[in-house]
Amino acid sequence: MENVLFLACIEPDGSLGKTARETLAIARQAAAELGAEFCAGLIGEHCEPGSRTAAAAGCAALYLVEGSAFGISRYATDSAAAEAIARAARPTLVFAPAVSRVSRFIAGLAQRLGGRVDTQITGLAVHDGQLVVDRWFYRQRIEATLTRTTRPWLLTVAPGTMPAFDGDAAPTRIERIAVDLPESLQRTRVEGVQAPPGAGQTVRPDAELLFVAGAGWTKPQRDGQSHVEQAAQLILGFLDRTQASLGGSKSLVDVGGEGQPVLPFLTHLNQVGQTGATPRHPKGLATCCHGEEPHVVGWRFINERRAINLDPNCGWARGKADVLYVADAFAVMRKVNELLGG
Amino acid sequence: MSGYHVVVCGSVVPDPLHPLEPVTGPNGPELKNEMILPAVFDPWAAHALYEAAHLVQSVPGSRLWLVSIGPRAKLQQVMMTIGQKVVLQLVALDGPAGGFVDAAATAEALADAIAAIDGLDRARLVLCGGWASASRGAGAVLQMVGEHLGIVDQFQGVDELAVQPDGALRVVERADGGLNQVSLCAGPPVLLGWATGNRPEPPNNPQIGMQNMRGVMPALQKARPAQLGMDGLRYCCAQAPRRRRETRIVKDMPVDEIAREIVAWIRG
Question: Among the four residues A66, A228, A301, B40, which has the most C-beta atoms within 10 Å?
């Protein structure tokens, strides 16, 4: 019989984040379909009210590792806490959210437990009593369905895979686990979390719209001159009006290293594609970029796609966008900003 | 003795410009014509290699190894390029480098190869690699290698590393929501899974190429075969996404009208 553990790190305010609650919903569903036992393990400085949410999902037991050393994302302490929870809960299946903190230690945890790990799963099903999961390979270019017989099997769930679980409180057995932290596990001191210069205000994972700027914004225009300042005003004006998240093509992010004029607020953190992010937004608008394959693999989870480009034969025209406007993005975005007001 | 012993793990992946098609092989899915697909060095591992080379240049007494599992012929092809960019010692394993190979088996083979490096001082070890590959993309192998080698100071999505005057390492990692986490680690042994870092790709340098080739070719010739088992992993299916959008190409529409349509779409 399978034993399902939902494992998560608590947010600074003690709650479970959105991706964690989505994962909780998936773990709960998997446990129900497998007829498995279901428990939860939480790591954080204080685990209220997150522990109430987990309890409301119907966990038979709740394992908590709490304390100031566990309020930060640090491999040594997080993996020690997660290992302690797993040793106590003895799961065969572990579901954890694919957020940066968990992603830093989940594979190391699998190694410690003698298990196996699959990350960023985007779907799951139970066939003949056996769990099968979906995940992407080759940077969203091939999707595979797989299963494993090795246990424990640790899985991280990609954001947006399922609606988040919501609930508050139900009676459950709570076990607080004390984790010994020798000096050797505290060689790293986390100084804090900060927005990178310039980019912090332009990356918005929860935005409805992704706006992607391509290298064309910095290239010479019809008058033979580049108009980077004007481009920056138009892009920032649009982001201000729509609260869209800003992405960039690799070529635009790289031009700084080639000595060409740059958009100062675009860094590699904005980069979308093969060597960048694969964001999830309901809509995406690409401007001045050519829709080449390495870039568009980062658009796999953008539902509605429109592009503005001067080239009617660019990659977007070949089945990658819903609409391609063959037009000057400077002129279109100026008018769009006018219409959006603000 | 001073300086770091820097080991970079990285391998080959299909050229991202090339279309990929999965087929069923004897051990599960593989890529159609995998052996003749053009290959490149894994992009995030390449960033790790460039950052590692910079660290080695900056700190006297440091050394750099590249440990790579891949089909020998592919490794040789890619080393012709990578070997001209940074001075390195290659440790090659002849085995599969595809995305469908189990991460745990790859990690075990890499860890064994690193542990067997002659002259490697594990107390000075800075283990680097990409934070995820462009093949499996799981972000799992490096962590597992670190566990095999007993490294408990691990960082992922690293964009910046700075050695402090007291020898501590200041590490900037990516966190959710476009934020960075800044940490101070007492020093090696440490594991750094690099994102893009901050350094451009070094230009090809024929002198470095000549210097490297004296070690690279023998390393390739004596590359041990790596048998990577699937150990309970079974693929039910693998497919390239078939969805192709019916793109509406809008030409000759006045700018005002395009703008109105876009605004209506955004608000809709």
Answer: A66
Partner-chain contact B144 A111, CB within 8 Å: yes
The two tokens of residue A85 are 């929870």
Question: Token pair for residue A235?
Answer: 């892009």
Rounded to a whole number of angstroms, the distance from the CA of B214 to the nearest CA of chain A is 31
Most B CBs within 10 A among A100, A149, A250, hence the mutation to make, goes to: A100
In total, how many domains does chain A have? Answer: 2
The answer to whether residues A168 and A254 belong to one domain is no
Domain assignments of chain B as residue spans, ordered by start: 5-225
B173 forms beta bridges with: B158, B181
Helix axes A75-89, A106-113, angle to 10 degrees: 50
All residues at 6 or more sequence positions from A4 whose CB lies less than 8 Å from its CB, including other chains: A27, A30, A31, A34, A36, A37, A38, A39, A91, A92, A93, A94, A95
- For residues A44 and B103, what is the distance between their CA atoms, to the nearest angstrom? 29
Q: Is residue A168 part of a domain?
A: yes
**CATH code that applies to domain B5-225:** 3.40.50.620
CA distance A139 to chain B (A): 6
The one-digit pLDDT tens for each residue of chain A (342 residues) are 999 999 999 999 999 999 999 999 999 999 999 999 999 999 999 999 999 999 999 999 999 999 999 999 999 999 999 999 999 999 999 999 999 999 999 999 999 999 999 999 999 999 999 999 999 999 889 999 999 999 999 999 999 888 999 887 778 899 999 999 999 999 999 999 988 765 557 888 889 999 999 999 998 888 888 899 999 999 999 999 999 999 998 888 776 666 677 788 888 888 898 778 888 899 999 999 988 888 888 898 899 999 999 999 998 988 899 999 999 999 999 999 999 986
Q: Are residues A141 and A236 in the same domain?
A: no
Helix (H) or strand (E) holding A103: helix A100-103
- The three-point CA angle B121-B122-B123 to 5° equals 90
Q: Which residues pair with A324 in a beta bridge?
A: A307, B249
Q: Is the peptide bond before A49 cis (omega within 30 degrees of 0)?
A: yes
- The secondary structure element, H or E, covering residue A37 is strand A37-44
Spatial neighbors of A134 by CB under 8 A, at least 6 apart, are A121, A122, A123, A124, A143, A144, A145
| Minimum distance, in Å, between the CA of residue A260 and any CA atom of chain B | 14
Q: How far is Cα B268 from Cα A124, in angstroms, rounded to an integer? A: 32
